[in-house]
């Protein structure tokens, strides 16, 4: 049986859907630019703040929980999903771990790659040398360094014939550079002719992402959904039916 894997690329909009809307204050960025604070101190401030924000009552994983439940109900047995994020927070990893504990203790679910790959680093406590380095929005595309985690995520995207993009704008240089790096290989791998399903409640962001995808992957298909993640889950993610998901989930 043919195995299909779907790569999911989560941006800030996905964190917002789970109650985490914090942004790096402009003053912090300006202090860094004008050398009033070191880069290391700036990153440490971000790490501490995001960890504190995750603990607030308004922040939850309900939307991610609903997403994983629908994946579990609907994904064909030979298919699976890879989860990749440009966000620093680890809400999605928390919910993946909690879902496994509730539903399949001690066993990886058939439908899911259980490690959430962070392309831009993470505030999640870890001493692993394999994690991606912490990238700031102000970094240029060339600043992205190779790491085991980032390489795994990058290869997953290259070999995907189906990519779902949630709440990403590709406005900062580092994220825009990701598209350029993928484009360099697009003639020889499945991504060049993949279907991109893009979810964003902001029509302007959605149009901008569509234009960038057309520029970098002219042979690929697109389905642009002008809605939030919860709303799309409510629709049963119909754009994935008959592909990674079975035609009926109920």
What does this structure look like?
The model has no long low-confidence stretch (mean pLDDT 91). The protein has a single domain (5-20, 60-240), classed as Rossmann fold, CATH 3.40.50.1220. The protein is α/β, with parallel strands linked by helices. Helix 4 packs across helix 5 (91-103). It has a six-stranded parallel β-sheet. It is built from nine helices and six strands; from the N terminus they run βααααβαβαβαβαβα. It has helices at 12-17, 26-33, 39-54, 62-74, 91-103, 148-158, 173-183, 203-216, 229-234; strands spanning 5-10, 80-85, 117-118, 162-166, 195-199, 221-225.
Beta-strand percentage range: 5-15%
Low-confidence stretches: none
Strand order of the largest sheet: 3-2-1-4-5-6
What is the CATH homologous superfamily assignment? TPP-binding domain
Radius of gyration: 18 Å
| Alpha-carbon distance between the two ends | 23 Å
Provide the CATH topology: Rossmann fold
Helix content estimate = 25-40%
Number of structurally distinct domains: 1
* Biggest sheet layout: 6 strands, parallel
CATH class: Alpha Beta
Rounded mean pLDDT score: 91
Structural class: alpha/beta
Globular, elongated, flat, extended or rod-shaped: what is the shape? globular
Question: Got a strand count?
Answer: 6
The helix/strand series, from N terminus to C terminus, equals EHHHHEHEHEHEHEH
């Amino acid at each position: 049986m043919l195995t299909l894997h779907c790569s999911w690329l989560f941006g800030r909009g996905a964190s917002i859907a789970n109650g985490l809307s914090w942004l790096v204050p402009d003053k912090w960025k300006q202090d860094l630019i004008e050398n009033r604070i070191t880069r290391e101190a700036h990153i440490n401030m971000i790490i501490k703040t995001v960890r504190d924000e995750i603990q607030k009552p308004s922040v939850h994983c309900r939307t991610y929980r609903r997403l994983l439940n629908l994946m579990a109900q609907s994904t064909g047995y030979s298919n699976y999903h890879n989860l990749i994020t440009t966000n620093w927070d680890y809400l999605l990893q928390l919910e993946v771990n909690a879902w496994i504990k509730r539903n399949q203790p001690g066993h990886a679910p058939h439908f899911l790659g259980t490690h959430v790959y962070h392309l831009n680093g993470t505030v999640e406590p870890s001493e692993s040398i394999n994690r991606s380095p912490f990238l700031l929005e102000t970094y240029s595309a060339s600043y992205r360094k190779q790491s085991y985690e980032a390489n795994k995520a990058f290869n997953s995207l290259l070999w995907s014939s189906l990519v779902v993009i949630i709440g990403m704008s590709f406005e900062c240089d580092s994220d825009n550079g990701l598209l350029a790096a993928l484009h360099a290989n697009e003639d020889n791998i499945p991504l060049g002719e993949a279907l991109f399903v893009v979810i964003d409640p902001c029509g302007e962001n959605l149009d901008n992402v569509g234009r960038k995808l057309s520029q970098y992957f002219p042979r690929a298909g697109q389905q642009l959904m002008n809605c939030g993640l919860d709303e799309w889950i409510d629709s049963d993610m119909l754009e994935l039916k008959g592909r990674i998901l079975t035609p009926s989930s109920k």
